[in-house]
Write a structure and sequence with these properties.
single chain, 150 residues, alpha+beta, globular, hydrolase activity, hydrolase
Length: 150
C-alpha cells in the first residue's frame, strides 16, 4: 500500500503543482542522529518536509523537525546544499541543513505521517536507512563531493 500512496502523491504533485521546495535536516541529540520512518514510504529518512509560502527554508527545516519528531534545534542551523529530487515528479528541490544540537521539546507520538523516530550513532545506522540519507551523511562527515541530485 505504501508504494501506491507514494505514486499517487507524486502524480498529484506532477498534475497540480509547480516547482516545489522541500527541506531535510541532519539533526543530532548528543552524538546520535535523528531519523524518521514514514507511514507512506519505506525506510529511515532525515526529518523534513515542504517549505510554506512566506517561510524561509531554514525556518521550515526547524519547524518540520519539531512537527515530525518533537525535537527542537538548540543551536544554529548550517545550510549544506540544494539538491534536485527527480523522484518527486521532476519538479522538487531539497534544501539540506545541519542541526548539530537538538533537544526534546515534546514527546513523540506516532501519527498519520510519521510511524516512528529513532536516534542512531552515525556509524551504526539502522537497516533500511535510505541511500539518499547515507549519501548526505557521507558528504558531511567523509568529505565526499556533494551530488546535485537527492
Amino acid at each position: 500500500m505504501q508504494p501506491l500512496v507514494g505514486h499517487a502523491r507524486s502524480l498529484a504533485v506532477r498534475l497540480w503543482r509547480g516547482t516545489t521546495l522541500g527541506v531535510r535536516a541532519i539533526a543530532f541529540d548528543d552524538a546520535r542522529l535523528l531519523l524518521v520512518r514514514h507511514t507512506y514510504v519505506s525506510g529511515w529518512h532525515l526529518p523534513g518536509g515542504g517549505v510554506h509560502a512566506g517561510e524561509t527554508a531554514e525556518a521550515a527545516a526547524c519547524r518540520e523537525l519539531l512537527e515530525e519528531t518533537g525535537y527542537e534545534a538548540t543551536g544554529p542551523a548550517r545550510f549544506l546544499g540544494l539538491y534536485f529530487n527527480p523522484a518527486m515528479a521532476g519538479r522538487d528541490h531539497v534544501a539540506l541543513y545541519h542541526l548539530p544540537a537538538c533537544a526534546v521539546r515534546r514527546a513523540f507520538r506516532a501519527n498519520r505521517e510519521i510511524a516512528e523516530i529513532g536516534l542512531f550513532p552515525p556509524d551504526d545506522l539502522p537497516e533500511g536507512t535510505t541511500a539518499a540519507t547515507r549519501r548526505r551523511l557521507a558528504e558531511l562527515f567523509e568529505g565526499r563531493p556533494p551530488a546535485d541530485q537527492w
